[in-house]
Each structure stands twice: as C-alpha cells, then as structure tokens.
Amino acid sequence: MNLVERLLAVDRKEFDRIERKEVPSRQLAKLVGEGAKVTIQAISGDLFSGLSASGLDNDGEVDYGRAFDTNAKVVAAGIVDPDLKNEGLQRHMGVATPAEAAKKIFKGEVNRIAAEIARLSGFGDELEADKEIKN
C-alpha cells in the first residue's frame, strides 16, 4: 500500500482534528490556587507564521525587542482555557487585547507556553533547528 492509499484510508475528520494539551502554570497557580493548568491547542501554520512575522524587523531578522509581544500573541491564539478573548475578563484585568491578558496573567511564562503551542502545532523541530543554526 503506497502513501496515497494509506492517506485515503484515514478518516477525513482526522485531517481537521486540533490537538490539545494541558500545561501547568506557576503564575496562574499564584492567582487561582495550586495545580492550575492552562489548556492549549495547536494553531494553523498560516496563523503561526503571521504571528511570528510580527517579531521581525524590516530586514526579516528577529527583533528581540518584539519577541515577548509576539509570544504573547501566539499564547492568546493557542490558549483555550482560560479564554483570554473573553471581554469580561479583559475588562476585569484592565487590558485591551488577549495578548495583553496573556502577559498580565503569565508574565515570563508566556515564552514557555508559546513554545509549547509551537511544538503542539508542529513547529518544535523548526524551533530547535533554528537554535542550533544560531549557535
């Protein structure tokens, strides 16, 4: 059986299935109690690429001054619970966007959670390869 035949045997719904995962958060636990976890999900390649591009300068190089904001946007796109897009939560926190909510709740954990979302979305190997190339 060749690969096309094997792909044709896969249930069509599997191609649209969005993978989810629970990730512990120390910052969230400080706010709501021990054992707090966030639920993340994979995001599409188009969305991930678009968000990642917001962290580049005019020459296409990584602008490390924008990296935290870019990661907060990835987190806002990939977190399912808590729903950072909830307008009531944003008002309660005094923020205007889901990314600002992510920064306010998760602080430095934003980078780790964004990396988890990237891996879940299939970009983990690329991120590791980029690190190796830079070193």
What string, H for helix and E for strand, traces the elements in order?
Answer: HEHEHHEHHHH
Mean pLDDT: 89
Helical proportion, percent range: 40-55%
Count the E strands. 3
N→C terminal distance: 42 Å
Largest sheet: 3 strands, antiparallel
Large-scale geometry: globular
Low-confidence stretches: none
Strand order of the largest sheet: 1-2-3
**Count of individual helical segments:** 8
Determine the structural class based on helices, strands and strand pairing: mainly alpha
Strand content: 5-15%
Radius of gyration: 17 Å
Short description:
By secondary structure, the chain is mostly helical. The chain has helices at 3-8, 26-32, 45-53, 67-78, 87-93, 98-106, 109-120, 124-134, and strands at residues 20-24, 37-41, 79-81. Helices cover 54% and strands 10% of the residues.
Topology:
Layout: H1 3-8, E1 20-24, H2 26-32, E2 37-41, H3 45-53, H4 67-78, E3 79-81, H5 87-93, H6 98-106, H7 109-120, H8 124-134
Antiparallel strand pairs: 1-2, 2-3
Structural description of this entry:
The structure is a single chain. A three-stranded antiparallel beta sheet has the order 1-2-3. With 135 residues, it is mainly α. The mean pLDDT is 89. It has helices spanning 3-8, 26-32, 45-53, 67-78, 87-93, 98-106, 109-120, 124-134, and strands at 20-24, 37-41, 79-81.
List key phrases describing it:
135 residues, mainly alpha, three-stranded antiparallel beta sheet, 8 helices, 3 strands, 54% helix, 10% strand, globular
